[in-house]
Amino acid sequence: xxxxxxxxxxxxxxxxxxxxxxxxxxxxxxxxxxxxxxxxxxxxxxxxxxxxxxxxxxxxxxxxxxxxxxxxxxxxxxxxxxxxxxxxxxxxxxxxxxxxxxxxxxxxxxxxxxxxxxxxxxxxxxxxxxxxxxxxxxxxxxxxxxxxxxxx
Amino acid sequence: xxxxxxxxxxxxxxxxxxxxxxxxxxxxxxxxxxxxxxxxxxxxxxxxxxxxxxxxxxxxxxxxxxxxxxxxxxxxxxxxxxxxxxxxxxxxxxxxxxxxxxxxxxxxxxxxxxxxxxxxxx
Lengths: 152, 122
Description:
CATH superfamily of chain A: CheC-like
Order of helices and strands of chain A: HEEEHHEEEE
Number of helices of chain A: 3
Structural class of chain A: alpha+beta
Radius of gyration of chain A: 14 Å
Number of domains of chain A: 1
Order of helices and strands of chain B: EHEHEHEHEH
Oligomer: heterodimer
Largest sheet of chain A: 7 strands, antiparallel
């Protein structure tokens, strides 16, 4: 479970790094919550595969929330579906990238895949550990879900 | 000054351009490309003074883009702006001929300081 905890702490750092930089998209404080990830929500997913770790990392929320995050991220007045998927995958990629940079010392072979946006439910392998971080923002709850495959 | 920005995310291209303008490059002409292959074509067309590229892109990634440029004898100042940035990748970027690697998230000051350090001034 320490991989999951380390990854989750890195995700919190990633969210905080976004807030301290130019990407002020969240106005809440990230906190780990004890529940399963709401995988029926839409969002962006990035996979990280290494010699020891196999991680699926996602940014998921109600679509209206994702749309508001995309508008904050881009500064656009309105966002098409393509704009929303583009912006949300980029945010997931940035936060996941911060986590990867932290975890690379534990798995030097860790590489990231291209992020994908899913409107439907992510199919989750049976043997995974999950962690969920929630950021309650003024535009709704945003979730960062981490799924780490056991015995990868 | 001409600056080529290559990133498969339209949002990120826009943010990079905006941050470069805020970093003092407000008079620059910006050219955009959605991947390395398009970047290569635009680089040949426009002869930019600076290329800022994402690392992970479909079609042709940033590293392949840089390798193609250097193989063709193009020595344009080239830097990565990426969510990556592990020590191995920084080393690989350097050995391939990149002048800098900026990890996301970044600020206008990151651009200003990095570009000044590699001798690119507005």
